[in-house]
Amino acid sequence: MKNLKSLYTKSLYVFPYLLQVVLNVSLIILAIVLSILLVKELILFGTILLEGDTTDYQLFLANVLLFFLYFEFVAMIVKYFKENYHFPLRYFLYIGITAMIRLIIVEHDNALDTLFYALVILILIIGYFIMNLTPRERPESKWFFQNKR
To answer: I need a labelling partner for 115 at 20 to 30 A (CA). Which of 23, 67, 140, 141 fits?
Structure first.
């Protein structure tokens, strides 16, 4: 019985470690794939600029924003490893704002949908503002949360 309890206790420490290894390997593979797609977008920019006969600026701008989405995801993965296996929330907000802007540029045919996309961007910006306004450490307080006597 004591041996079984010891095995159970060891497995409780090993299982999260194994999951962390699987997550880290998966994120490294994802970063490699995203880096390849990032280079592919750079090559596409080069061909668009060298040809020079295209006048579809919406397509070019959509590709630029897609490039930034890839870039932000790779930067978020790098930040994950630098900050001891923690994803900063602000990167998700950046990615959401960029994705919505790209959606507005690519699919702007319906005015009501465009309005909803703009409202989503506004909500994400308000969330980012609130996130930066609240203190990171609870004992410390910023100017907004100071006690007024």
So the answer is: 67
- Give the DSSP per-residue string, 32-56: HHHHHHHHHHHHHHHHHHHH-----
CA distance 117 to 121: 6
Please state, as a whole number, how many other Cβ atoms lie within 10 Å of the Cβ of residue 109.
Answer: 7
Residue 29: alpha-carbon gap to chain centroid: 16
What tokens appear for 97 in the block? 């704002």
What tokens does 100 get?
A: 């919505």
| Alpha-helix runs per DSSP H in 52-110 | 57-82, 89-106
Virtual torsion, Cα 70, 74, 79, 84, nearest 10 deg: 130
pTM as predicted: 0.69
**What are the pLDDT digits (tens) for 36-61?**
999 998 888 888 778 776 667 777 77
Contact 107, 113 (CB under 8 A): yes
- The count of other CB atoms within 10 Å of the CB of residue 82 is 10
